Amino acid sequence: MSTTLAWQGTTGGVPLQCVEIPRREPRRDDITVRIDFCGVCHSDLHALQGATPHMSDSGGLVPGHEFTGTVVSVGSAVTRFAAGDGVAVGTLVDSCGECAMCVVGQENFCHLGPLSTYGGTDPVDGSVTKGGYSREYVLREKFAYHLPEALDPAAAAPLMCAGVTMWEPLRALGVGPGSRVAIAGLGGLGHLGVKLAAALGAEVTVLSRTAGKAEDALALGAEGLLLTTDEDQVRRARGRFDLVLDTVSADHALSPLLGVLALDGTLCVVGNPLMTGPRLLELTSGRKRLTSSGTGGTKGTAEMLAFCARHGITADAEVLPSSRVTEALNRLGSGDVRYRFVLDLSDLDQKNA
């Protein structure tokens, strides 16, 4: 069994410590990846704060489930990758492969439960997965993706969670030219939602509590910003949107978002699906739908990467050396980021020297 350096914490929160962790022995269909860049997701902060009890922190929690890097070795049965290939990895690293969801490429909804990139229990050896805040990772080739050469590796890393989390509901709900889409919250998820929806041809509006992001919203591809604290703006927007993608990570009321939906409109909550939903009666007027979505399967993720490569879509990222991971998490918790932190893991080589 090999080891690698990683930034590890517990469900007690931050700070994280640089430690040596084990990586399982590669299997025949595995690739070993040197991680170059890893995005910092709000889910990482939730996990460290103990808000995701389904995740195990046995032996310490190493977050990180959106990363890019380079293949350093491949197993004997690997056919899609070779050493030196650029690669991208997301939130899942295994699934049963046999259930109805897996068969159609929706491994994120695997009936037996997909294996999370960190905090999951490997079905083969029972080990707990440790994530991308590390220099090396071992996974099945099926759950790795060729990184398009057109995409910057650092700015592309957040596509593997934030990007596909936006992509799947946009595609599932048929968003395209003529669609009226509102993105609630302009953060790590929301700014990618604006870019993707606009590239699909939709009319996009940002819903925000603050007017200060209006300029950013326009630059990202939105046609405007609706100030949700302005009662007159909210009243005039009643029944306006076909889809509201709610990316807000904090607890908040869903009723105002339902109010701006058109007939048969959909509110998709992806920022904080742990919240309590609205009264069902609020869905009655206008036959509104309340739904959610969780990251993406192999089919959707591959499609999303190809689409982003064609349209030049990546995250607006602030790249930090991984030694500043605690700073990144603290700033993320206070909302001090535009719009995604990405860790550069190359500084772990110096610690290993």
Protein traits:
2 domains, 353 residues, six-stranded parallel sheet, seven-stranded mixed sheet, Rossmann fold, alpha/beta, Quinone Oxidoreductase, Chain A, domain 1
How would you characterize the overall build of this protein?
The chain has 353 residues and is an alpha/beta fold. The chain folds into two domains: 2-161 and 296-352, Medium-chain alcohol dehydrogenases, catalytic domain (Quinone Oxidoreductase, Chain A, domain 1), CATH 3.90.180.10; 163-292, Rossmann fold. 25% of the residues lie in helices and 28% in strands. The protein is built from twelve helices and 17 strands. It has helices at residues 42-48, 100-103, 153-156, 162-172, 188-199, 214-220, 231-236, 255-259, 281-284, 298-311, 325-333, 348-352; strands at residues 2-10, 13-23, 30-40, 67-74, 86-89, 92-94, 115-116, 136-140, 144-146, 180-184, 203-208, 224-227, 241-246, 261-269, 289-292, 317-321, 340-344. Strands 3, 4, 5, 8, 9, 16 and 17 form a seven-stranded mixed sheet that branches. β11, α6 (214-220) and β12 form a beta-alpha-beta unit. The model has no long low-confidence stretch (mean pLDDT 94). Residues 9-343 form the Enoyl reductase (ER) domain. Keywords: Metal-binding, Oxidoreductase, Zinc. It catalyses: a primary alcohol + NADP(+) = an aldehyde + NADPH + H(+). This is alcohol dehydrogenase (NADP(+)). InterPro entries: ADH-like_C, ADH-like_N, ADH_Zn_CS, CAD-like, ER, GroES-like_sf, NAD(P)-bd_dom_sf.
Which helices and strands appear, and what pairs or packs with what?
Layout: E1 2-10, E2 13-23, E3 30-40, H1 42-48, E4 67-74, E5 86-89, E6 92-94, H2 100-103, E7 115-116, E8 136-140, E9 144-146, H3 153-156, H4 162-172, E10 180-184, H5 188-199, E11 203-208, H6 214-220, E12 224-227, H7 231-236, E13 241-246, H8 255-259, E14 261-269, H9 281-284, E15 289-292, H10 298-311, E16 317-321, H11 325-333, E17 340-344, H12 348-352
Parallel strand pairs: 10-11, 10-13, 11-12, 13-14, 14-15, 16-17
Antiparallel strand pairs: 1-2, 3-4, 3-8, 3-17, 4-5, 5-9, 6-7
Helix pairs in contact: 4-5
